[in-house]
Model the fold of this input.
Amino acid sequence: MNPAINPDAKARLDAVLSRLNAATQRSGNTARLLAVSKLQRGDAVAELAACGQTAFGENYVQEGVTKRRELEAAGLSGNAAPLEWHLIGPLQSNKAELAAKHFDWVQSVDRAKLIPLLAKGRSAEAAPLNVLIQVNIDDEASKSGCRPEEVPALADLIAAQPALALRGLMAIPAPHPDIEKRREAFAKMRQLFEALRRGHPGVDTLSMGMSDDFELAIEQGATMVRVGTALFGPRPAKA
Done:
């Protein structure tokens, strides 16, 4: 059973979708919306699900697992399709098997060590785990992600695992106040993405862009944008 539609949640979702649709029409590109539910209560996720949003992104493995279980136990799901759960935060190796069991996508693979652990954790009865390689495109010391030149080797390792499905790339470019700097980072990611697709034709996802710059990311070829604040409002403080 889904909760009654919350008018505020619907208004926020409609506003984001309006921006997304306008950006896709201008650019001719298409993009999916991932609602970033990090630190949000399960009922806030359920409200967006009732409005039709089905894909949600979590930064922390245990928080995401707990939230998914909570919603499933309450019988809450998307109106048109089951909810889809993405891990978008840094992944510790000791949480890889747990992530593989409970998430549909892991967007933050940035080193070879994680790949066999994710494959081991994925049930043989489940569909292959969708995987994105996270790239530290601006070489920020404070951010996770591999170097651009490491992408081909990681992609080959992922593609060799039957329990994993290589879907593409993810990045969190530096939030430069100069919009041209952001455009440059997004363009570099598009080039990497196109190069990856030449070697792996099944690749179809370039995840980049957030609440304040996702239109620019779509212009530069993003196929998935990750939006939190514009959908949920300011994040609660982490306990």
